[in-house]
């Protein structure tokens, strides 16, 4: 335990670009590690890229066909044994957000039983320090890139809170495609002691213009939320900000929800195209709200909240119009039916893996041609409070 405390302290003192070196030195001293490497998941969640001084010098490994990918997907240590070393692959994850995999090659015959808990603690400490270090270095961000991001995609990814989040009351996962050329779709979440606020956004247009529009709307929503405004007023303030800039020539579709963590009651403002489906007791159905005007379409639009309730065991899937409107080579839209099948087929996966699985199926439906629009999927599993609360009240007729 003293060794782990020493590693944590050394990580906090280290220069931002030397975190992997600190861990490697500590593991060489503590357990005779022969080699230590850190791989981070790329933006598309298809490969694990080595963190190294010159990015992309070493070939990546695939998430779905590698020992490192096994650890990343299962979120459990995975061990491979060779003649010269025993390699332990461990997930690096912070508050449910899957970042990558740390691999430690140990001498043959190493006793892994006492080492694994300590190595997992090291991974957790490393993940937290990477989040802090990213303020001061591009090293880790560059390692995530399998190819260059467009400028619009650069702007959009910088807005995101993460790709997954886990709390006792819920678990969230989200993904965007095309990951390296996304422009208008986005999502945001914020959890406090009592509430989870979730936003699914679709800015009109293409390229940097769509990214600028979404950036304005999302930051206006954050500004209103952080000022303590209610959900309807958050939408109204963002509506005013977008209209003031674009005078109705551009607008943003948004689905805005606020979950009460104690009761499972949800307030919602549906201002546009993002849609919601619910998996409950093996049954998938769309959840419809009364549609209201997108943000920025007209001056001084008034918004009203609607209500529904979630129950422990519910899974919610949010999708942008780039998902359900995506057409096959024969012109058939992906639509509600295919989304219902995908939601049922992925029911055993954790929320962090569901968006990627749905988007892979969408890509197969769409064929070889690139997606014509952004595609965004967010998955939320609701657990509720474990003290007997969180069961939710009966749902209103319109939910």
From TrEMBL:
Keyword entries, A-Z: Hydrolase
PPM-type phosphatase domain sequence ranges: 167-382
Top-level taxonomy: Bacteria, Bacillati, Actinomycetota, Actinomycetes, Kitasatosporales
Family annotation (InterPro entries): Bact_Sigma-Reg, PPM-type-like_dom_sf, PPM-type_phosphatase-like_dom
EC number from the UniProt entry: 3.1.3.16
Classification via SMART domains: PP2C_SIG (SM00331)
Name of the molecule in the record: PP2C family protein-serine/threonine phosphatase
One Gene Ontology term of the molecular function aspect: protein serine/threonine phosphatase activity
Organism, scientific name: Streptomyces bikiniensis
């Amino acid at each position: 335990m003293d060794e782990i405390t020493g590693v944590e302290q050394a990580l906090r003192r280290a220069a931002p670009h030397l975190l992997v070196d600190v861990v490697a030195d500590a593991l060489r001293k503590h357990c005779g590690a022969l080699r230590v490497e850190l791989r981070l998941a790329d933006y598309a969640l298809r490969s694990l890229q080595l963190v190294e001084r010159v990015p992309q010098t070493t070939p990546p490994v695939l998430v779905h066909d590698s020992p490192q990918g096994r650890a990343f997907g299962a979120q459990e240590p995975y061990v491979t044994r060779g003649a010269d070393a025993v390699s332990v692959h461990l997930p690096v994850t912070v508050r449910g957000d899957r970042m990558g995999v740390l691999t430690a090659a140990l001498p043959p015959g190493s006793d892994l039983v006492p080492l694994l808990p300590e190595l997992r603690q090291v991974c957790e400490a490393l993940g937290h320090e990477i989040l802090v270090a990213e303020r001061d270095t591009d090293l880790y961000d560059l390692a995530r890139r399998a190819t260059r991001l467009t400028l619009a995609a650069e702007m959009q990814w910088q807005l995101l809170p993460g790709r997954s989040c886990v709390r006792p009351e819920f678990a969230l996962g989200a993904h965007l495609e095309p990951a390296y050329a996304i422009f208008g779709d986005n999502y945001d979440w914020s959890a406090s002691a009592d509430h989870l606020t979730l936003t699914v956004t679709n800015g009109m247009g293409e390229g940097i213009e769509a990214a600028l529009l979404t950036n304005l709307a999302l930051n206006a929503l954050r500004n209103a939320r952080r000022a303590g405004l209610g959900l309807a007023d958050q939408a109204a303030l963002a509506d005013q900000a977008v209209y003031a800039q674009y005078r109705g020539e551009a607008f943003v579709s948004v689905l805005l929800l606020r979950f009460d963590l104690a009761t499972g009651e949800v307030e919602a403002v549906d201002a546009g195209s993002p849609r919601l489906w619910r998996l409950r007791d093996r049954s998938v159905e769309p959840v419809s709200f009364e549609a209201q005007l997108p943000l920025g379409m007209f001056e001084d639009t008034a918004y009203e909240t609607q209500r529904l309730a979630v129950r422990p065991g519910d899974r919610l899937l949010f999708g942008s119009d780039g998902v359900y409107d995506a057409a096959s080579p024969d012109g058939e839209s992906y639509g509600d039916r295919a989304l219902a099948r995908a939601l049922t087929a992925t029911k055993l996966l954790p929320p962090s893996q569901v968006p990627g699985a749905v988007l892979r199926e969408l890509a197969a439906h769409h064929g070889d041609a690139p997606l014509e629009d952004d595609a965004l999927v967010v998955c939320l599993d609701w657990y509720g409070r474990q003290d007997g609360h969180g069961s939710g009240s009966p749902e209103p007729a319109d939910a």
